[in-house]
From TrEMBL, chain A:
One of its GO terms (biological process) is phosphate ion transmembrane transport. Part of the ABC transporter complex PstSACB involved in phosphate import. Responsible for energy coupling to the transport system. The lineage of its organism: Bacteria, Pseudomonadati, Bacteroidota, Flavobacteriia, Flavobacteriales. It is found in: Cell inner membrane. Keywords: ATP-binding, Cell membrane, Membrane, Nucleotide-binding, Phosphate transport, Translocase, Transport. GO terms for molecular function: ATP binding; ATP hydrolysis activity; phosphate transmembrane transporter activity. It comes from Flavobacterium agrisoli. This is Phosphate ABC transporter ATP-binding protein. It comes from the Bacteria. GO terms for cellular component: plasma membrane. It is a peripheral membrane protein. Residues 4-245 form the ABC transporter domain. The keyword Secreted does not apply.
TrEMBL record, chain B:
GO terms for molecular function: phosphate transmembrane transporter activity. Residues 162-373 form the ABC transmembrane type-1 domain. Keywords: Cell membrane, Membrane, Phosphate transport, Transmembrane, Transmembrane helix, Transport. GO terms for cellular component: plasma membrane. It comes from Flavobacterium agrisoli. This is Phosphate transport system permease protein. The lineage of its organism: Bacteria, Pseudomonadati, Bacteroidota, Flavobacteriia, Flavobacteriales.
Length: 250, 385
């Protein structure tokens, strides 16, 4: 069974038909890269997977999105529970104006975990998972804003991991970071793949080629093709994909 | 820079002037200009406190030994009492013999205390004019009676007015803050764009309505409502003042809080929601902390308006200068007192200066509250980072 399945999805921002008939599927414990020119609908698609677009007035969805075989837009699905299972990391690091510890503990606390020992244990594990522990272990009480951009982004990943999701969505998580921080996060992706299903939006072709198992190419709200990353970058089926990858447009 | 310095200087000058005038109440004799209090020359009592004089004329003190004199019952004498001692003929057609008769009376009656106008003081006055201590700051603040035109001695206790002001303002804030916050949360986080675009200008419009109009509204709607709800003899109560003030403070509180809430970065709210937090948790844990300083600013301005507000309160609180025990009694606030009495207080007189002293107290209260709020909010900011 596929971890994430999208069936004939159309999505509208009011009159704006942003996604056209998208169908694709992702296996568990894989990294899927979403690529395509600006405005083609990558973020829109990604945000459908944790129902983040629900927050925007006047949007409409047609079709089905299944995670673990369940339609996440079903009336009986609770969006809050869904978001615990489907974590998200944003383009710009967005820690809360709280301490490093409190940032990671936030998701646990809002999910009703009150046992201090459990919170502490999960915070420590999550920070270790993103290889940030050595850098912050002495200043967990300090404000998260005292960290560098790259450290902040890893903290945001740790924050998402702390609630123990099975899917991790990342929208250009390295676009605001320097090359060294970027490569640290890419290494991290390899580690995390064992436990999570990862969907990552990127404008960086090398990143998509290096880090992902599969790549989906979006163009003007349509899914042009999706295949093994190697195939997409060496002999894509569609002319448009080839043009985009070789830098002829976009 | 220059203009702000000029503003500061002007503010300091105004405050200085206010305190100069207000201080007069403590340097003047607390007896109406042109009147005097006299006792028999044989009476050993030379000086009395204003409060003692009041008690004497209220007949709470009836013997001179209670104020350090001889064992001698006190005989009160006001100008109008003259007819009990002398006939009209004896006083003369134009009261021309009045001074002589008072003179006579004072020397005849060892226990007398006489209050009368200067113009009836005889050339060869044989009584002794009583010295009166000045009003002390402590008496002014702790006195429980405000009756500045009382005779023979003005009652300048501002405690009921301070209480009235604080009760009404506190009540107003307790009503306005929760409602204002709820409305701000609704507008910024819950309402759809259409609703917000419709409601927000309306609320801003409310801030521009003159306070007299709110006063009328209070008088016609809120006062009768309070009267019937609580089954009171009169509806003009502190609560009516609080409700009217709360209504007046709401637009400020809502507008400022809502602006601050809407300034919460979207990234911050999305981060919270993406972790599985509910909308309420996000409001409570992200939006409100982020907009805390805007909310405090709204509250400060709201309180500021509430405490300094005059007209609307004057119209609905009943204006009884009595220390209130609950908000369901008529109360009188400092601003209402100043507004109502300044016109009839003789310029430069004791009453006039007492009203300036009230102004000083109002200034100190407002200043103190602002300072407090400023301290609290700066501490909060400190904690956050
Ligand atoms: N909140 C929104 N309201 C209305 N339209 C939106 C909104 N967000 C995106 N859109 C529209 O949806 C389309 C797809 O946008 P989307 O953000 O998904 O593109 P993207 O592929 O992520 O682009 P980028 O690479 O620049 O991030 C665009 O036409 C955009 O204008
Ligand atoms: Mg995007």
């Amino acid at each position: 069974m596929h971890k994430i399945e999208t069936k004939n999805v159309n999505f509208f921002y009011g009159e704006n038909h942003a996604l056209h008939d998208i169908s694709l599927a992702m296996k568990a414990n894989t990294i899927t890269a979403l690529i395509g020119p600006s405005g083609c609908g990558k973020s829109t698609y990604l945000r459908l997977l944790n129902r983040m677009n629900d927050l925007i007035d006047g949007t409409r969805l047609e079709g089905e999105i299944l995670i673990d075989g369940e339609n996440i837009y079903d009336k009986n699905t609770n969006a809050y529970d869904l978001r615990k299972n489907v974590g998200m990391v944003f383009q710009k690091p967005n820690p809360f104006p709280k301490s490093i510890f409190e940032n990671v503990a936030y998701g646990l606390k809002v999910n009703g975990i009150t046992d201090k020992a459990v919170i502490e244990e999960r915070v420590h594990t999550s920070i270790q998972q993103v290889a940030l522990w050595d850098e912050v272990k002495d200043k967990l009480k300090k404000s998260a804003f005292e960290l560098s951009g790259g450290q902040q982004q890893r903290l945001c990943i740790a924050r998402a991991l702390a609630v123990q999701p099975s899917v991790l969505l990342m929208d250009e998580p390295t676009s605001a970071l320097d090359p060294i921080s970027t490569s640290k996060i890419e290494e991290l992706l390899f580690e995390l793949k064992n436990k999570y299903t990862i969907v990552i939006v990127t404008h960086n072709m090398q990143q998509a080629a290096r880090a992902s198992d599969n790549t989906a190419f979006f163009y003007m709200g349509r899914l042009i093709e999706m295949d093994k990353t190697k195939t997409i970058f060496t002999k894509p089926n569609q002319k448009q994909t080839e043009d985009y990858i070789t830098g002829r447009f976009g | 820079m220059l203009s702000s310095a000029a503003t500061s200087i002007i503010v300091v000058l105004i405050v200085f002037f206010l305190f100069m005038e207000g201080a007069g109440v403590f340097t003047k004799k607390p007896i109406e200009d042109g009147f005097l209090l006299a006792v028999s020359p044989s009476n050993p009592v030379k000086k009395l406190e204003p409060s003692q004089i009041k008690d004497i004329f209220d007949q709470k003190i009836t013997n001179w030994k209670e104020v350090g004199g001889k064992d001698e019952p006190i005989v009160l004498f006001r100008t109008s009492d003259i007819s009990t001692y002398y006939t009209d003929e004896e006083l003369g057609e134009n009261f021309e013999f009045f001074p002589a008769k008072i003179n006579e009376l004072i020397s005849k009656q060892p226990g007398i205390i006489a209050f009368f106008s200067d113009k009836y003081k005889a050339e060869n006055f044989s009584g002794r004019e009583l010295e009166i201590n000045k009003i002390k700051v402590f008496e002014f603040l702790s006195g429980e009676e405000w009756f500045p035109t009382a005779q023979p001695i003005a009652q300048m206790g501002v405690k009921p007015l301070i209480y009235g002001t604080l009760w009404v303002s506190l009540g107003a804030i307790l009503i306005a803050l929760p409602i204002g916050l709820a409305a701000a949360i609704f507008l910024s986080e819950i309402a759809r764009k259409k609703v917000r675009n419709l409601v927000k200008p309306l609320i801003e419009l409310l801030a521009g309505i003159p306070s007299v109009v709110y006063g009328f509204f209070g008088l016609v709607v809120i006062v009768p409502l309070i009267q019937s709800t609580f089954n009171l003899p009169v509806g003009e109560t502190g609560l009516a003042g609080s409700v009217v003030l709360a209504i007046m403070a709401l637009p400020t509180i809502i507008t400022l809080s809502e602006d601050a809430m809407r300034n919460t970065p979207r990234a911050m709210k999305e981060a919270s929601l993406a972790l599985g937090a509910s909308q309420w948790q996000t409001i409570y844990k992200v939006v409100i902390p982020h907009s805390a300083s805007g909310i405090t600013a709204g509250a400060i301005l709201g309180i500021g308006r509430a405490i300094g507000e005059t007209m609307a309160v004057l119209m609905v609180t009943g204006n009884a200068a009595v220390i209130p025990h609950t908000l369901l009694e008529p109360v009188r606030t400092i601003p209402a007192t100043i507004a109502a009495e300044l016109g009839e207080a003789p310029n430069g007189g004791l009453h006039y200066e007492a009203l300036f002293a009230l102004g000083c107290i109002l200034f100190i209260i407002t200043f103190g509250i602002n300072l407090l709020v400023e301290l609290v909010s700066s501490k909060q900011k400190h904690k956050k980072h």
